[in-house]
Amino acid sequence: METVKVNLGKRSYEIVIGNDLLPRAGEFIRKKSHLNHSSAVILTVPPVRRLLEQKVKNSFDKAGITTFFIEVPDTEKSKSLTQYSKILNQLTRISKGGNSFFMVTLGGGVVGDLGGFAAATFKRGIPYIHIPTTLLAQVDSAIGGKTGIDLSNAKNMVGAIWQPSAVLSDVSVLQSLPGREFISGLGEVIKYGVIADEKLFRFMEQCQPREIQTDIAALAYLVTTCSRCKAKFVEEDERDQSGKRSLLNFGHTIGHAIESASGYSNLYKHGEAISIGMVCATRISLALGLTHEEFLSRLISLLEKTGLPVRLTSKVPVKRMLKNYLFDKKFSNSRTRFVLPVKIGRVVLQERVPEQVVEEAVKACRS
User: Fold this and answer.
1) Residue 42 · residue 231 · CB < 8 Å
2) Which of 208, 196, 221, 194 minimizes the C-alpha distance to 300?
3) Distance between CA 149 and CA 264 in Å, rounded?
4) Can you give the pLDDT at residue 309?
5) E strand segments, the chain
6) Is residue 177 a contact partner of residue 139, using CB atoms and an 8 Å limit?
7) Predicted pLDDT of residue 84
């Protein structure tokens, strides 16, 4: 078992990473002095609930914690004002009579973002714990306190920064993920290799996705390495004000635009959209003279070997995508800002990228 601490003063918390942690989740939570509530509201999706409800419930029962489960549909579209409102109404009913509880998000990035936002805003903020069940959530979205929901033309536009009380990453649950879901998470892993860790990038070049998913030690290495990396960025720029934390969004400006232009459908999963976004960002970097062809070729080669897309399908309306990327939250004072790679392990935040350069990079990524 590994523990990574996110050092944020009074808002500090631990990321606990290990094999078969769920049976001990209740015991771990009871050790947290500020989580002395008698109840927990667990937000999840139907497939995860069917697979893990009994294991989690038994663990909480042993710790003397009553559980209430809330389900949302298993889709990115659940990150909506409609579902957010429904959750708040259910929390209100559960709290009737003064029932005090903390929240638990049991699922992937959608559940974590949505549940975290509900926790941040219900009664002006209640404690919550992430129990991420996808690779993408364990290596990225469950860490750092960014919560939120999507608008029709802009992903994560409404939200809050509300740090969890803890993150419990049980890597054994990743072995049952559908192949496409697991590979999507590897898109974020590769992102970390590009922005900060050449050793991680080389590790991914030497492995096959199916080999990683069946290897507990390899899974623990990926989750621990990415968790430490993200914790460092969050500690240096918790509220994303200096630009340091923005570097975590390599590939996300175009990636988010792909997701919104696709109507948050299943056409592209998050990691798949980010994969194409990383290629587009690298083409922009190449056009501006910040990187070289060798890096672009190496990145594309790794993404393709991993099973991630590097080109846009014709089903994505490019005009809408080019319109939607302008809603990116990194932009400020009417200035575009892109996270662009220089070499493996180093990216920069570049302002005033010409629109023509962006359009040409996107068009070069069309099938």
Assistant:
1) no
2) 194
3) 12
4) 97
5) 2-6, 13-18, 39-44, 66-71, 101-107, 128-132, 146-151, 154-161, 166-170, 337-343, 346-351
6) no
7) 98
Give the separation between CA 45 and CA 67, rounded to whole angstroms.
Answer: 15
**DSSP class of 176:** G
Q: What is the pLDDT of residue 358?
A: 93
| DSSP strands (E only) in 111-261 | 128-132, 146-151, 154-161, 166-170
Q: What CATH number matches the domain at 2-176, 3.40.50.1970, 3.30.10.20, 3.40.50.920, 3.90.1580.10?
A: 3.40.50.1970
Q: Which two tokens stand for residue 108?
A: 């992937």
Reduced to 3 DSSP states, what percent helix, strand and coil does the chain have, rounded to the nearest 5? 55, 20, 30
Domain 179-364 sits in CATH at 1.20.1090.10
Grouping H, G, I as helix, E, B as strand and the rest as coil, residue 327 is helix
pLDDT of residue 334: 64
What ranges do the domains of the chain cover? 2-176, 179-364
Q: Distance between CA atoms of 94 and 90, rounded to whole angstroms?
A: 6
State both tokens at 111.
């559940």
Q: Each residue of 242-296: pLDDT tens digit? A: 889 999 999 999 999 999 999 999 999 999 999 999 999 999 999 999 999 999 9
The first and second tokens of residue 172, run together, are: 């054994």
Residue closest to 120 by CA, chosen among 97, 82, 85, 146: 146
Which structure tokens are listed for 210?
Answer: 């199916």
pLDDT of 331 reads 77
Phi then psi dihedrals of residue 67, to 5 deg: -115, 140
The SS3 assignment for 127 reads coil
Instruction: Give the 3-state secondary structure of residue 246.
Output: helix
CA distance 175 to 219: 9
Q: Kindly give the parts of the chain with pLDDT less than 50.
A: none
